[in-house]
User: What shape does this take?
Amino acid sequence: MRFLTLFLMFVAFTNAEEYHFVSINNLIEQEVGRIVLPQVYKSLGIDITIVPMPGKRAQYEATSGNRDGEIMRIFTYGLENPTTHRVPTPYYYLETMAFIKKGSGVKISNKNDLSRYVIAKVRGVKHTNNITKGLTNTYDLNTTKQLMRFVATGRADVALTNTVDGLMALKELEIDNVIPIDNPLAILDLFHYIHEDHKDLIPCIDEKIKEMKASGELAKMIKDAEAAVIDKNIIVEK
Assistant: This one.
């Protein structure tokens, strides 16, 4: 009966109009999601569009119903935004990493150490907002590259971002005096969120993600997407 229900839902969705989602702009993990998630939907015969936006704008568009959801957010996003519904199975992950200037004497081993330093983070990004909640010594900037420039020039002690995102920014900027600490401050699963108006999509999408994980197809898609995003950034850098 469960599979019959999913099949009937699948038939209904393939006859539906295109779905329109948002992502956060200028973040590597979100760019990976922009490649991977359309393939998940396409395997069900569903077309989607994804528009990158600043984090707070993306949240507004998704939670208000102007768009059909967000492609990739952490678990607590769903707790804070009840009009969006989480697809239960995560399809990617991120690391909350602290980047510091070489020789600065900054020492961070856990999130409690952040209170001693001036922090730079990208505006509207949930995982760095959560880990700095209650702190007043923070700068909200627009891009990861700006974070790294702030730390490199001494305007901030610490840049907080996803590990891969930070490393790519440093490479593109050719900054060699900023480095990640030894271990991430957090490792967080990333989930797809769908506005409540289209929550009937969730069982089919969740089942497909589980299937792709089990077969190894999702891992290959992610690996290919990461390579494509890195290649794109290398081309831009030149």
